[in-house]
Amino acid sequence: MMTQHSVEKIGGTSMAATSTLFDNVLIAGRSGAELYGRIFVVSAYAGMTDLLLEHKKSGEPGLYAHFARGDAAWRDALDRVSGAMRERNAQMFVRPESREEADRFVHERAESLRRCLDDLDRLRAHGRFSLKDQLITVREMLAGFGEAHSAHSTAVLLRDRGVNAVFVDLTVWSEDDRVSLDQRIRDALEPIDLATQMPIVTGYAGCEGGMVRRYARGYSEMTFSRLAVVTGASRAIIHKEFHLSSADPKLVGGERARKIGRTNYDVADQLANLGMEAIHPRAGRGLRQSEIPLCVRNTFDRDDEGTLICGDYRSDEPRVEIVTGVQELHALQFFEQDMVGEKGYDSRILEVLDRRGAWIVSKASNANTITHYLSGSSETVAKAVSDLEEAFPGAIVTTRPCAMAAVIGSDISAPGLVSRALDALEQADIAVLALQHQIRNVDVQFVIEREDFERAVRTLHAALVEDSTAGLRRRAAA
Ligand SMILES: Nc1ncnc2c1ncn2[C@@H]1O[C@H](COP(=O)(O)OP(=O)(O)O)[C@@H](O)[C@H]1O
Ligand SMILES: N[C@@H](CC(=O)OP(=O)(O)O)C(=O)O
Description:
The chain is of the alpha/beta class. It contains 17 helices and 14 strands.
């Protein structure tokens, strides 16, 4: 396999801006051999996975949620998704034959799903079968439909423009042939000549353990990351709707948010941990270990090189690079006076949190209290609380809704940074419920009330990023 190639992921929002995507990324003025040496991994068009599974943010049920509940509305939900896909085709295709081909593809996949779900429905109607295990498979199959559609139509559109694009469908698998994600990728890419062919790979890949089950939403970045590692890419690029910015442009305003020029994987990990979609939490690892630089680019800003993320970058002077956070957080406090001087409580709490699938954003402890800051649903947290109460009858376990604003940078080791942040929050009348600052000097976390979240991000951004006097001196080496 060619070594000087890039692996590039296109997010759902960028996919939906199809003509811009062609003009700025897929073709972008290239011709002949310049078009090749690039592997694209695509997400479903924005909104499709929401219709197939459930809405990513609001949780509004999609096809999967209806089917899982045994609600006949799944049939309408399937029609809605395939309708939305055909509508998208209608907007994208100029050549009638290509549009027909794309519509036929959607129709065939939708009908095959319908047959499968019908069979399961019939089985379920006997009342003697539990579909629990099958539902996991259904969820995987449905998710894959979104990326099958987007990759297939992108390949057809590219061929219409004279590009030798190849649709690489990783969404279909056979239960007798469950292989690892890496193996799946290796097998699919092996016959492709990157010098003359442009693979358009589905962001969903049928693999051991299931893509959605293992990696949750945003899974396309895992396919992307492993593809870059397995094929030995010289660079990995994520094409997004926005520049990776000093804060969410939707929150602080596009004119205030600054583009991040460079940063490191440590910062990317912190962002991923907070649920910011800069890069999937588990995607960064492989790229960092293989020393593949990652570039995050804005699809709508063709000439801008984007943000370069490497393993070894450190800002020239200490500086806050990003202000972000989590608005829906739960502080789970475990108070037990017998804990003083005893070990082992931690690991038993973690066991419960792991079993309940809670996402730990941060944690803190003192002599008799361990606090975990968890993101995720209130139900998950409530279940964890009741498990803990049962396992530790002497402990007092409480939860409290809260939010977290975090300031992050590859080097924030500046004296006065925390006090400046606290001053700004106080002036804005925002109470700080708890504070965390690690010796590692990559982030400071401020735990606050949920209703203060957006204001806290704006306040910290104004004080530590927008204020030009915020350039901070490096703390003198001890
Ligand atoms: N610091 C930040 N820089 C850029 N975008 C951010 C930041 N924080 C949050 N976001 C948000 O991340 C979201 C996801 O980005 P997007 O490019 O739409 O993903 P995708 O292309 O994968 O659908 C956007 O809605 C944007 O508002
Ligand atoms: N389409 C899938 C996978 C994905 O990675 O999407 P995006 O790149 O748009 O976050 C999802 O919504 O989860």
